[in-house]
Specification:
Layout: H1 5-12, H2 22-28, H3 37-68, H4 73-90, H5 96-103
Helix pairs in contact: 1-3, 4-5
Bound molecules: zinc ion.
Amino acid sequence: MIAGPEEMILAVHVRGLDGMCAGCRAWWARLTPYPCWQAEWATSRQARAITARFLEGARTRRRELRAEYAGAPVSLALYLGAYLVQASEDMPWAPAGALHRRFVGWTREAGPQGR
Ligand SMILES: [Zn+2]
């Protein structure tokens, strides 16, 4: 994989031993507290790309589940309910409403072709 601008920036703009950005010091002889704005920009771009990939994966999986359980919405809710229970055990700090929406709530929303 070819490194994008974010990877190249993050490879150079690293925290120095004194807490300043080593990249800013080496490239521009500038003392900048780490993370500098270049590192923050690259980190936020990467986070946005990861979130977009995750959301696309979730949309795809929901489409597949709707097709698999077409005409059996209760079975789908029971199947996902088991994962909801597991997730609430694994993440007791997560708000119950958010977990419910993520695991089961979306099944009650209208799908791409109605229900
Ligand atoms: Zn920097």
